[in-house]
Design goal:
By secondary structure, this protein is mostly helical. The protein has a domain at 28-88. The chain is built from three helices and no strands. Helix 2 (27-40) runs antiparallel to helix 3 (46-88).
Length: 89
């Protein structure tokens, strides 16, 4: 399993903020990063195992809801485009 270089990520993040070019990061990237972070933990107790399992399940639900929201946004954007076209015509 690969390890995450938090030092490099922090430097890149801070560099982007100072340069004013904070990259657009979507919810899927955040969820992916959290999933990888959770997978890198090595639980030592049964309680920790359960907490990680619950967190992973919650991330799956977040991903599912985010996908539905993005689909809804796409539909609404298309409806706006159609309404604007009808208004211009």
């Amino acid at each position: 399993m690969s390890t995450i270089d938090f030092d490099s990520l922090t430097r890149k993040f801070l560099h982007n903020i100072t340069e004013g070019t904070l990259e657009e990061v979507g919810i899927h990237e955040y969820v992916q990063a959290l999933t990888e972070t959770l997978s890198s933990f090595k639980p030592r107790t049964l309680t920790e195992q359960r907490r990680i399992a619950v967190a992973k399940q919650q991330l799956k639900e977040i991903k599912r809801h985010a996908r539905k929201l993005q689909e809804r946004v796409a539909v609404l954007e298309e409806q706006i485009t159609l309404l604007e076209e009808d208004k211009e015509a």
